[in-house]
Amino acid sequence: MKRAYHFIDTHCHLDAAEFDPDRDAVYGRAMAAGVTMQVVPAVTRAGFSHVAACCRRYPGCLPAWGLHPLYIQVHEARHLEALRQQIEMWRPVAIGEIGLDLFVPGLDLSTQEHYFVQQLRLARDFDLPVLLHCRRANDAILKQLRRVRVKGGIAHAFNGSPQQARVFLELGFRLGFGGAFTWSRATRLRALARELPLEAMVLETDSPDIPPEWLGRGRNEPGELARIAASLADLRGIGVEEVARVTRASAHAVLGLQGPDLEHPA
Predict the structure, then answer these.
(1) How far is CA 83 from CA 49, 79, 95, 118, 224, in A?
(2) Could you report the per-residue pLDDT of 97-117, keeping only the tens digit for each?
(3) CA–CA separation, 237 vs 242, rounded Å?
(4) pLDDT at 8 exceeding the cut of 90
(5) pTM assigned to the model
(6) What count of other Cβ atoms lies within 10 Å of the Cβ of residue 235?
(7) Of 45, 85, 116, 183, which alpha carbon lies 20 to 30 A from 97's?
(8) Are 143 and 196 in contact (CB under 8 A)?
(9) Distance of CA 85 to the CA centre of its chain
């Protein structure tokens, strides 16, 4: 009897405009592929309503509220209070997407750090985990995490060193892996995906971004997570059912998700 494996996409921007033409179909394909839960993080104050609408429409979608470092030019001080109010109105699974970005030129680091630290404090106040954007910024983020202790979370699209991975794990975080490691040229990231403890990892797509190798530069979507999981299983020499079970349990643990953690025959 064929078994249905249930996956959690811990980082999916299903609210993005790229999905406006066919969002219902995208969600349907994800469910058909066994992606039964998706965490949808906000990136701006204006985006709160889009994430909320998405999570109301699709029962498998759960919100995270946050102000993304790539949008510091649109964030305002009052948006931090709006974020607090949003958390009080609809408690999310996490605060996110938040963090630092040292890859894109022209983003003032001090402004990024201001919004990041204020949001870490909100996460601490509400006892919530965080979803971290940490592109080229792992050490800078870890510095702030040592100063403002939160209950953990996910280092989204992790691409750091084994030493940085160890520190994130010590601070109560899991490491997000998605389409990036499926590219054959990503040798260092593939080594991490192969060698890190499976319990340290959660699965994500970052749809519509970070497409896996088989999509080339095409639009990514949450339904691809099942094949990403199969790629991780092949890389590690284990069964996809183990990848599904362990990464799902890790997502439940770090995000405090509720519900049965079972696989059902199909």
Answers:
(1) 12, 6, 9, 11, 31
(2) 999 999 999 999 999 999 999
(3) 11
(4) yes
(5) 0.95
(6) 16
(7) 183
(8) no
(9) 22
